[in-house]
Amino acid sequence: MPHQKGYASARYELGGLNALVRANYYGKVRFRPDDPANDEEFGAKVLFDVNVGYRFNKTVQLTVGADNVFDTFPDKQQKAANISFGRFVYSRNVSQFGQNGGFYYTRLELAL
Questions:
Q1: pTM of the model
Q2: CA-to-CA distance for 62 and 109, rounded, in angstroms?
Q3: Residues 53 and 62: beta-carbon distance below 8 Å
Q4: What tens digit of pLDDT does each residue of 22-76 get?
Q5: Cα separation of 67 and 88, whole Å?
Q6: Comparing C-alpha atoms, which of 48, 54, 40, 52 is closest to residue 95?
Q7: Collapsing DSSP states into helix, strand and coil, what is residue 36?
Q8: What are phi and psi of 2, to 5 degrees?
Q9: Torsions phi, psi of 40, nearest 5?
Q10: Statement: residue 84 has pLDDT above 80
Q11: Alpha helices in the chain, H assignment, sequence order
């Protein structure tokens, strides 16, 4: 886990339209295995989430959005001993954030 993490967000609403933009900052992390020759450091990253929605009436809202909209991934490991014959391109021992990239969605909300 990074020692530093932060976020900033902005929300906008006008009539039935609403939008959100959020920046998530993850500080650098260091992997220190038993052999110091295999130490690795993974740089800080900023991931962005966005969504835009429209409320048609009091009961129906449609939202389109993305978490990690720019499909940012952690740094890849460089030391052969840490990669384990190509099976672990991303560190399985330290993690700033997920390794699945962007998540895109459409959401329909119905309030009954």
A1: 0.84
A2: 6
A3: yes
A4: 999 999 998 888 888 888 899 999 999 999 999 999 999 999 999 999 999 999 8
A5: 24
A6: 40
A7: helix
A8: -70, 150
A9: -140, 150
A10: no
A11: 80-83
